[in-house]
């Protein structure tokens, strides 16, 4: 039973891989047997008994239909092959889409965790900046340093906000030391 199934699978693979060859094989085998039958019929009958033209038509009448059937079979197999390839591409694209959605969901979960742990220290830093400015008075050097800290706090807060709203992202290379970096594509 297994050998019959294996032979069937091989024949099926051959027909799918070489449909024109298989079709041509059947057409020319049929033609060969029709010619043999025609010659045997001519040999066995007298020339005066039956007209030759009717014998020719009778012997080869199915050949054009066989050729049309074979051409249609080749076309059907080609269409099926194209359909199969397009279906494979669709499945691959769907898998890629699911993978990116899973990665996006993971990125959003990680961002929420980072936000939870980073926002508290950022809030403390932001709240301490106002009293530090009062204490600095007119010392421009200290005020400049506090402005730099304030700007860094705002950048960190904005970056975390952008990552929390992320719907799309791109991966950019950060060089050989840093590696790949995820950049959010936030739509406004």
Q: Would you mind describing this structure in some detail?
A:
The protein has 188 residues and is mainly α. Helix content is 82%, strand content 6%. The protein has 6 helices and 2 strands, in the order αααααβαβ. Strands 1-2 form a two-stranded antiparallel ribbon. Helix 4 runs antiparallel to helix 5. The mean pLDDT is 81.
Summary, kept brief:
The protein is built from six helices and two strands, in the order H-H-H-H-H-E-H-E.
What's the layout of helices and strands?
Layout: H1 2-17, H2 19-44, H3 52-60, H4 63-136, H5 140-164, E1 168-173, H6 175-178, E2 180-185
Antiparallel strand pairs: 1-2
Brief descriptors of the model:
188 residues, mainly alpha, 2 strands, 6 helices, two-stranded antiparallel ribbon
The major pleated sheet works out as: 2 strands, antiparallel
Kindly name the structural category. mainly alpha
- N-to-C series of helices and strands: HHHHHEHE
Distance between the termini: 64 Å
**Mean model confidence by pLDDT:** 81
The count of β-strands is: 2
Outline type: rod-shaped
Radius of gyration: 39 Å
Sequence of strands across the biggest β-sheet: 1-2
> What kind of oligomer do you see?
single chain
Amount of beta strand: 5-15%
Low-confidence stretches: none
Helix content: over 70%
Separate helix tally:
6
């Amino acid at each position: 039973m297994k050998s019959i199934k294996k032979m069937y699978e091989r024949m099926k693979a051959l027909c799918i891989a070489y449909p024109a060859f298989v079709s041509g094989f059947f057409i020319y085998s049929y033609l060969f047997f029709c010619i043999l039958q025609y010659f045997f019929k001519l040999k066995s009958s007298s020339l005066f008994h039956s007209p030759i033209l009717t014998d020719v038509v009778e012997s080869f009448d199915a050949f054009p239909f066989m050729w049309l059937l074979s051409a249609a079979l080749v076309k059907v197999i080609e269409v099926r092959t194209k359909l199969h390839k397009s279906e494979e591409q669709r499945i691959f694209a769907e898998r890629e889409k699911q993978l990116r959605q899973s990665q996006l969901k993971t990125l959003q979960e990680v961002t929420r965790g980072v936000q939870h742990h980073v926002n508290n220290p950022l809030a403390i830093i932001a709240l301490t900046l106002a009293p530090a400015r009062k204490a600095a008075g007119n010392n421009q050097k200290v005020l400049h340093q506090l402005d730099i800290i304030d700007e860094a706090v705002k950048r960190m807060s904005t970056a975390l906000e952008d990552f929390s709203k992320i719907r799309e992202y791109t991966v950019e290379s950060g060089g050989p030391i840093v590696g790949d970096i995820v950049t959010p594509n936030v739509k406004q």
